[in-house]
Amino acid sequence: MSDAVLLTSGVVQSSGMFLTFLMYINELIYILEKYNIKVKLFADDVKMYLKIVNDVYMQQVQLAINALTNWAQEWQLGISVDKCCILNIGTEITAPRLSLNNCPLSVLTQIREL
Asked: In angstroms, rounded to a whole number, what is the distance separating the alpha carbons of residues 86 and 107?
């Protein structure tokens, strides 16, 4: 048993509130699907991906990021911009100019996955 601690925000995993969080975060999948974005969720982590073949797809990704931001603001959830990035997968390296909350996202060619 863990000691009791005062939480200022967040949801304790495996609590009833965490299950409620999972129910409403699923709404995000449907919002992002409108932009043809594939979504993977694990607890409170969200991964969005889309095969980019031209600038129109890049605009779709930015619109999806904006929709994610609006959804998070509506539910009073913070997004850790410093934990967000763009991962290039493939032979062509692009440098998209995408932003989250008016902060440019860093472009990586590799990332450590936990």
From this structure: 5
